[in-house]
Each structure stands twice: as structure tokens, then as C-alpha cells.
Amino acid sequence: MPADLPSIELTENSAAILTRRYLRRGDEGKPIETIDEMFWRVAYHIAKVEESYQQDVIEQARSFYRLMASRCFFPNSPTFTGAGTPLGQLAACFVLPIADDMGRESTGIFQTLRDAALIQQTGGGNGFSFSRLRPSGAMVKSSAGKATGPVGFLRVYDHAFGEVAQGGSRRGANMAVLRVDHPDVEEFVTCKTVEGAISNFNISVGITDAFMRAVQNDEEWELRFPDVLHPAYRNFHGTLEEAEKVGLPLRTYSRVSARELFQKIVQQSHHNGEPGMLFLDAANRQNPVPHLYTLEATNPCGEQWLGPYENCCLGSINLNQHILEDGSPDWEKIRESTITATRFLDDVVDANAYVPAVPQLREAALRARRIGLGIMGLADLMYASGIRYGSPEGQEFAAQVIEFIRYHSMLESIRLAEARGAFPAIQGSIYDPANLTWQPPQPLQPYQNDWGRPEIDWDAVTQGILRHGIRNAAQATIAPTGTIATVAGCEGYGCEPVFALAYIRHVNDNGRDLQLTYASPAFEKALVNAGIDAETRQEIFNQVMQEGTCQHVEKLPEAIRNTFVVSADITAEEHVRMQAAMQAFVDNSLSKTINFPAGATVEEVATAYMLAWELGCKGITVYVTGSREQVVLETHSTA
Ligand code: UDP
């Protein structure tokens, strides 16, 4: 590692987490690298692929190192653990196809289970659509028996994954999706609350526009599946829509009330936070490669729609490190970080070793070269800028930031296409220069505020694509950043608001329950700047510690109260509107939870689901405070 590179500055807590999660260890379990050496290892191994593009590896590695060591950008955790190690698997998430077949096809149920287990061992999470599996009780010709059905096989998967620890330090995260018109959907909706519940999967119902309209109009809803006894079914591996196209008849298993089914889903989420909803048509309207596949599933946390065998390497710009002295966004620095980060992620596509035993993974990755650049610390930037998360102004602010990042990421992706070539599957995609159907993204509401953002010229992007194509079929994703935001020292994860301004965190320390107290540094700074003396500050913090929020603290100046909102201070509608405002500029998707206060009604949750669909969100996850028994992070009053 070059001696003149700067060291990273980390809090004690961040350094401890990083050491535990990311440092390479020798045979005795002791770290064999320092924190700075870890960053250099990652920077160097990603930059190494620049060799094949005739670039100076060391120079590029230095630039990647500076980007990470300044905490301006972190890739997802698997890149830290995998780069330059024998594992070499760098992506956080994958989607695998499951065909209605025990194993004859490479995408058969048990082939895919095997592929998924191999991916899990490398620290990658998996998403699956179970929608192509025939309903339980349907005929199985070869054995003249009755089919297990998607939920039965989901249990098989769940059990298998329970036994496979993920990449040593990372536990298996999985997503199961079932379409809302699948005959077994009602069993699926409740499968996590019944006995022998599924514990290694998040579950989401794949919702169609037709279903949402049927709910609005209080219509009947058909649960259907292709006729499995039809001769054409044996070689059919398509979606429900494709069955109709090839003339394979659909059999209606039952008719239900759309509203009652919707109510069932909402009720479960209200009690349990699950199932979530994934809006299939919204996702497919923006599918960049519709000539390759229809999108049917996402990764475990829902922010990444992927085709069969695709992965996405995620990375997040830390907005907390892009704040000017006066608290406003440092746009120029955001632009620079975006450019380097985009190049970094494009290099990761080549540097990733994937899982050699599942060759389809590399093939799919290189075909579309998807990257997922996002953010963390949005809430930090909003605290500093004095903008209330959730307010109309806050929605616009978030949209302006994301639009700016997406714009510069696309420009860089076009420059990379010019130098290295467009993604191989560009022909027939929405970015095909010979038939460009991609349209520049637009804000949900016309902008009304000026936060000093430099001008954006989307026409330059259109012209660039027409001339050079684009290097990456998808560019933007906002990840949960569960680990990296902690290491980077952000107060707000991903695009989420801050959870609590002060709280007690329970940490399991070798079986002992350790209680760590936390107080928001940004809040403390605002109190100091407002001239509030130390004694009063302590009083304020003591009060905030009880509730997590400062909204009831009388001694606070109004401007501070208005800015320093936490998740529970924001209404569900505001949460949804924030999500939709950002979604407009994110071509993949984003990880966001719609928080409800304890006591929220099922109707309120239903309204949020409907609003999310109407505003063009690609999915929705809700959480009603207190509805799940185990809460890791809790404020003092609920502890
Ligand atoms: N993920 C996983 N297991 C985990 C955490 C995350 O498989 O324990 C996957 C999952 O697909 C998730 C993605 O990694 O959507 C990104 O998660 P996050 O941003 O929290 O990861 P980080 O990079 O912060 O570790």
C-alpha cells in the first residue's frame, strides 16, 4: 500500500464493527490486515480490472481508496469481504429462477436450491419467484400424484437455508415472491404466521395493476394457472402472460373477492410487517431489458429487481460526507463521488468472481452490467440543511439529490460506454441507440425550491446514449445499508429518516446483554449552535432518551423541532410520498419502510398500500410499531 495515502478516520464503534465484519483473518482467527490495508486491498483489486482497459491500475486504485477512506462512498459488504480474497464474490444480491420441474431443467426446483445454497455461502442474498410452480393438489403426470405447491417448496427451501450459514459472518437473507393471481396465494400470505413458520425468508406478494383496479372497483378476482395437463405445458417455462400468448389455456382454480384478498394481505402486514407488496407492472414498465425477460422477483430487501441469475453489486454515496460548512449539500463533491463510484461499480462487474459452479451468474452479469449506486445518510444531510424529512419541501429535496446522482451516474456510464463499449445486450433494450425508448426521468411534482444545485441537462444524456450507448443497463438502487451506514457513521440508513435521536441499544456480547446509549451528534450540534447551555442540553437529551423524539420538548426552538424529526414523527403518507419522490429517479428500486405508530388501523395500512401503487412505487413494506415482539433497536420507554 502506498505510504502517502491518508488513513481513514472512524469512531471506536465503527472501527470495532469494521474489524469484526471486514478484516481478513489468518488461521488463528486474528486479523492479518489493518483497516487501511483492508481499504487498499479492495481499491486495488477492483482497480486491477482497469488493466484490461489500458488504464493505470495504481492511479485508479488510489482514486478508489481516497473515495472510500474519506467515507464518501462504500460498496456493499460482500465487496469488502470478497475483494482480493479466495472467495472473490462481491455482490449482495441475486435472483434465481425456479421452473415447475424437480430437476430435469437447470432451473428445476432442486437445481436452483443447490445454486442458491452456493451463493449463500459467499454472503449473497437470494430472491425467488415461486409463481411458476403449479398449485398444491394439481396433477403431477410423471408420478400420477398431487403437487406440493409453492408454499410446500418454500418450506423445503427455508429449512435448507436454515442449515447453511451465509458467508461466515452474514446470515442467509432470502425473498420469496408469489403472484396475487396464483391459486395458492392465500396460503402464501399467512405462511409466516402459522405453525412451523418460515424464518429465513421475507415474503412479498407480486401485485398486478389489474388486481389493484379490481380492488378499487370491488370486483371478483380469478386465481389461475396454466393447464398442467395440456400437452404444451411440458415444455412451457413462461409466465402467466406468456401462456396466454402461446395459446396454453389457463385454468381458473377459484374466484375470490379482490377486496377480501387485499384485506387479508394488509391485515397480515399490519400484524406482522409481512407480506410486503411488489408492484410487478410498475417494475416492468421500467425494465431496461424487456427483450431478455419479464421481472418477477427482487432481492431479499426489495430494492433490487433482477432477471434470472442476475446480481447487483450495490454501493452507496455517504451524503453525511457531502455537506458544506453552512449545512447545505456540497453538490460539486457529490458529482465527483458519483463519477468515481460509478466507475468503481462498473469495475466490480468484471472483478467479481461470482460463483464458478453456477456459470449462469457471470453470463447474466456481463450481459446487462447492472450497477446499483445509491445513498446513505440522506437524513444527516437533511438535518444539516434544516429540511424536514417527509414535508413537501423534504420530498422535493430528496428528489433533487437523487436526480443529481442519477444524472451524473448516467453521464459517466455513457463515457464508459464510449471508452469500453455499451452493455452487450443493449440491442433491443430501452437504451438501444437504433430505437431509443428510454425517457429522462421527471419529478412527481414540479420543483419549487432552489438549493443551489448545478443545472441538469437530460438532453445531454439522451444525445450521449444515441452516440455511444450506455455501459450499464441499470444504474441506481437505494440499499438498506444496514452495515455500511454504521461503519460510515451515518445517523440515517440509506434513504430512511433517523430512527431515534437518542436511544439505548441492546447488543448481544457473547450471551451478555450490553446496553449502549446513543445521542445524535447532529442534534447536539444544533443545540450548541442555538446557544443552549450544557445543563439544558442534558435535560433535553434525558427527555429525548425516553421517547426517541424531540417533538414534545418544550424548551426547543421551533426550527430545531421542525428539522429533527425521527421515523415515528413522520406520517405514513409522508413516508410513502418520500419513497415515491425518490423512486421517480431510481431505475432499480429502493429500500424503505413505511412506519406506523402503535395503534394504527388496518384501514390506514390499506390506504398507504393504495397510495404507494398510485404514486408509481415498485413495492411497499410497512411496519406498525410494536407489532413484532423482537425489536433490536428500541427507545427507552419501550425497553
Ligand atoms: N443482505 C443479505 N444478508 C444480510 C444483509 C443483507 O443477504 O444479512 C443482502 C440483501 O439482499 C440486501 C442487500 O444485501 O438487500 C443489501 O443490504 P445492506 O445494504 O443492508 O448491506 P450492507 O452492504 O450495508 O452490509
Description:
With 639 residues, this protein is of the alpha/beta class. It has 3 domains: 12-88 and 299-468, Anaerobic Ribonucleotide-triphosphate Reductase Large Chain (Alpha-Beta Barrel); 93-298, Alpha-Beta Barrel (Anaerobic Ribonucleotide-triphosphate Reductase Large Chain); 507-565, no CATH class. Helix content is 38%, strand content 15%. The strands form 5 sheets. Strands 1, 2, 3, 6, 7, 10, 13, 14, 17 and 18 form a 10-stranded mixed sheet that branches. A 3-stranded antiparallel sheet has the order 16-15-19. Strands 4-5 form a two-stranded antiparallel ribbon. Strand 15 (502-509) and strand 16 (512-519) form a beta hairpin. The longest helix has 29 residues, at 392-420. The radius of gyration is 24 Å and the shape is globular. The protein starts with 11 loop residues before the first helix and ends in a 5-residue tail after the last strand.
